[in-house]
Design goal:
- By secondary structure, the protein is α/β, with parallel strands linked by helices.
- It has a single domain (about 5-124), classed as Transcription Regulator spoIIAA (2-Layer Sandwich), CATH 3.30.750.24.
- Helices cover about 35% and strands about 30% of the residues.
- It contains 5 helices and 5 strands, in the order ββαβααβαβα.
- A 5-stranded mixed beta sheet has the order 1-2-3-4-5, sandwiched between helices.
- The longest helix has 13 residues, at about 25-40.
- About 30% of the residues are buried.
């Protein structure tokens, strides 16, 4: 896969965890999902996805957040109906999940600062 993200599926929760490392661009996000889709890492039986950006930082402008939401919408056969929890703790990165959430359509996203809160939200 890539060196800026790692995937781990927890079957007991039916949740895919994707952890990012380093500086992340919109292209990194979309290309890593393209690879995950091609390798069947994302599948319909899942309840949701936790995107953990605590070990990363966004190099994403506010205008580019639409591109992230557009990618999910363009791939609703993969992401449709999923809950996508986005974990960030850096103040400057907190706006990214808020902006993506404002464009949700066919999937649901939300921002969190802890894994526990993200998992609870997906499972509720």
């Amino acid at each position: 896969m890539s060196d800026f993200c790692k995937y781990k599926f927890f079957p007991e929760l039916n949740i895919l965890f994707k952890t990012y490392f380093g500086t992340i661009t919109v292209r990194d996000i979309s290309s890593s999902w393209e690879t995950a889709i091609a390798n069947n890492i994302v599948h319909n039986g899942m309840k949701g996805i936790v995107l953990d950006y605590r070990k990363a930082n966004f190099q994403v402008s506010l205008d580019q957040t639409t591109e992230i939401a557009d990618f999910y919408k363009a791939n609703l056969e993969v992401f449709g109906g999923f809950k996508i929890a986005i974990i960030t703790t850096e103040a400057k990165d907190l706006v990214i999940p808020i902006m993506v959430k404002s464009k949700d359509e066919g999937y649901t996203s939300n921002g969190f600062s802890t894994v526990e809160a993200a998992v609870d939200w997906i499972l509720e």
